[in-house]
């Protein structure tokens, strides 16, 4: 890990203090100084914890007194740099929300069961997992993205049958497919008689039918979404409450997952920042592309472009790369709320990242939207002519949410300092899901500030 002293010389616009040098591995929590006020909770502190009964609704949270589920003890920001404390909170949050062994096992078994169903429905198909499930960047409530690769014979058979029945095929271009003229009507009759018991319809509808027949008791939701750029079947597995999105013959998602794994090795902050920002957008209902939000892939491209920009700036100014997650998150919000020009500028993560004018001759056709000038233009690293950000029509609302988060965080990490129990909780309210992940003692984690506690006052005075 780089010197924390260098970190705060680089981030003096947030706080004027410096910290001691650390040589720990990347993203390890930095232990605060134990001066009798800070440190791990001891027996006396455990005795004064207020027990709160679990409620069926969303539990209340006081950011000035309550400890969030990712914190185990109170931290006095007068004795430890707030950015160091914020870094520690992000590390703890990621440890709380990252996939657990039993969760990974459940998802793996669910994918295996679905693979069996897909192979019964489509002959010689290949089931591939992509997205956050393939990169390990999924939250407990994240969907599983699956692509079914059909062989050419299966595609041809389904296309012929759809053409005979409807006069059109169901490919992405929607072109009319005529019945093969080389076949005589007699031969077609023979083929129809031989395959009379084969199911007909598009792959999407065939899969939906198979799910109703074999998984009816285990489905709480099922929908076929055809009027999108990538048609898919979306369903929720009731016993596990995990949703699965299934598309057909899409290879780009699998390649993108491999690319992101490479980027995570090159830029370690990408993973923890993704966890925090995915939850940030999810809590505000801004995480679904089909509702105008920012999906996982676009979010990771935004984080990656920001980190690449920061690395270039550090290289050009001959400064070391800074991996304090608290400072990085604050700067991410500042970059996309204040610095980045959504109207005129787009970006790419290829070739170590670069920005480009959306109105340039070679870019205007694919990245400029005349009806929606305030949009985010992001080049797909696997298809440079495709704009990943085009579905996100609520980017103005997302930009404003980043702006509010930046200003709130600035109040808690810079002078004059507004002290709170948890800096992260000021922009990310703990949910019931987080409390459940703490364990059976999750409902006993609320405590008052030591300044309001008579026992701790006597300890300090005595």
What would your notes on this structure say?
This protein is of the alpha+beta class and 462 residues long. The chain has 2 domains: 4-30 and 70-99 and 267-429, Orthogonal Bundle (Poly(a)-polymerase, middle domain); 101-254, 2-Layer Sandwich (Beta Polymerase, domain 2), CATH 3.30.460.10. Helices cover 42% and strands 10% of the residues. The chain contains 16 helices and 9 strands. The protein has helices spanning 4-10, 43-47, 82-97, 101-121, 132-135, 152-166, 185-194, 203-214, 252-266, 270-282, 296-316, 325-339, 364-367, 395-413, 432-438, 454-461, and strands spanning 126-130, 144-149, 219-225, 232-237, 242-248, 345-348, 354-357, 377-380, 383-387. The strands form 2 sheets. A 5-stranded mixed beta sheet has the order 1-2-5-4-3, with helices on both faces. A hairpin with a 5-residue loop joins strand 6 (345-348) and strand 7. Helix 3 (82-97) packs across helix 10 (270-282). The two termini are 38 Å apart. The model is unreliable at 1-26, 31-56, 159-179, 195-199 and 441-462 (pLDDT under 50).
Write a brief caption for the model:
It contains 16 helices and nine strands.
Describe the secondary-structure layout.
Blueprint: H1 4-10, H2 43-47, H3 82-97, H4 101-121, E1 126-130, H5 132-135, E2 144-149, H6 152-166, H7 185-194, H8 203-214, E3 219-225, E4 232-237, E5 242-248, H9 252-266, H10 270-282, H11 296-316, H12 325-339, E6 345-348, E7 354-357, H13 364-367, E8 377-380, E9 383-387, H14 395-413, H15 432-438, H16 454-461
Parallel strand pairs: 2-5, 6-8
Antiparallel strand pairs: 1-2, 3-4, 4-5, 6-7, 8-9
Helix pairs in contact: 3-10, 10-11, 12-14
């Amino acid at each position: 890990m780089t010197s924390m002293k260098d970190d705060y010389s680089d981030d003096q616009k947030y706080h004027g203090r410096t910290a001691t040098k650390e040589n720990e591995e990347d993203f390890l929590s930095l232990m605060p100084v134990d001066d009798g006020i800070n440190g791990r909770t001891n027996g006396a502190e455990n005795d004064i914890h207020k027990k709160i009964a679990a409620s069926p609704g969303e539990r209340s949270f006081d950011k000035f007194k309550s400890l969030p589920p990712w914190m185990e003890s109170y931290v006095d920001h007068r004795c430890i740099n707030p950015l160091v404390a914020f870094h520690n909170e992000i590390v703890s949050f990621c440890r709380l929300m990252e996939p657990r062994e039993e969760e990974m096992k459940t998802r793996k078994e669910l994918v295996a069961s679905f693979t069996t169903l897909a192979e019964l429905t489509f002959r010689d198909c290949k089931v591939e997992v992509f997205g956050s499930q393939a990169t390990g960047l999924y939250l407990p409530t994240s969907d599983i993205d699956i692509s079914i690769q059909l062989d050419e014979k299966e595609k041809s058979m389904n296309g012929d049958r759809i053409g005979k029945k409807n006069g059109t095929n169901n490919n992405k271009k929607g072109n009319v497919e005529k019945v093969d003229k080389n076949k005589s009507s007699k031969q077609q009759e023979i083929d129809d008689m031989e395959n009379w018991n084969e199911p007909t319809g598009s792959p999407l509808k065939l899969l939906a039918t198979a799910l109703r027949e074999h998984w009816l008791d285990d489905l709480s939701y099922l929908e076929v979404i055809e009027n999108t750029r990538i048609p898919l079947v979306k369903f929720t597995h009731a016993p596990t409450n995990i949703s699965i999105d299934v598309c057909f013959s899409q290879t780009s998602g699998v390649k993108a997952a491999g690319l992101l794994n490479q980027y995570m090795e090159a830029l370690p902050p990408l993973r923890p920042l993704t966890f925090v920002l995915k939850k940030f957008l999810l809590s505000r209902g801004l995480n679904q592309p089909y509702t105008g939000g920012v999906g996982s892939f676009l979010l990771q491209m935004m984080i990656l472009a920001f980190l690449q920009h920061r690395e270039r700036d550090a290289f050009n100014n001959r400064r070391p790369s800074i991996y304090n997650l608290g400072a990085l998150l604050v700067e991410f919000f500042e970059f996309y709320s204040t610095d980045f020009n959504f109207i005129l500028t787009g970006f790419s993560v290829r070739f170590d990242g670069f920005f480009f004018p959306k109105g340039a001759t070679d870019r205007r056709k694919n990245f400029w939207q005349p009806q929606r000038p305030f949009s985010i233009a992001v080049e797909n690293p696997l298809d440079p002519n495709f704009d990943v950000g085009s579905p996100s029509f609520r980017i103005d609302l997302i930009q404003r949410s980043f702006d509010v988060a930046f200003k709130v965080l600035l109040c808690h990490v810079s002078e004059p300092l507004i002290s709170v129990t948890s800096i992260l909780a000021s922009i990310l309210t703990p949910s019931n899901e987080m409390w459940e992940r703490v364990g059976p003692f999750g409902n006993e984690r609320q405590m008052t500030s030591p300044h309001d506690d008579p026992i701790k006052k006597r300890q300090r005075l005595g």
